[in-house]
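STRUCTURE:
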């Protein structure tokens, strides 16, 4: 099994379309650019989301934007592209885990 963190090494970009390009902004005030920044900044915590991996493998990432905004991103891989499913600010519990 490939570790979630290792699969990101082979990613070539992001998949944005009408289904997900404005959803996170409309619901959580998180831009597509902020979602992408999470994957390039450190530290980055990536785990498999087994509970939501019904039809395809899903993952979540805890990371930060260039402006140090702490963001939770749920995503899947479509080939070598990262497809963001949902993004929002981290909960207090997620922040504690991320910052510890």
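SEQUENCE:
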């Amino acid at each position: 099994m490939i570790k979630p963190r290792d699969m990101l090494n082979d990613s070539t970009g992001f998949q944005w379309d009408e289904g997900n390009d404005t959803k996170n902004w409309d619901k959580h005030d998180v831009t597509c650019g902020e979602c992408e920044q999470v994957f390039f900044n450190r530290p980055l915590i990536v785990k498999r989301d087994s509970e939501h991996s019904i039809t395809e493998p899903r993952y979540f990432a805890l990371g930060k934007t260039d402006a140090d905004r702490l963001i939770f991103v749920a995503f899947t891989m479509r080939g070598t592209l990262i497809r963001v499913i949902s993004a929002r600010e981290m909960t207090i519990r997620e922040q504690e885990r991320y910052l510890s």
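REMARK: The first strand starts at residue 13 and ends at 14.
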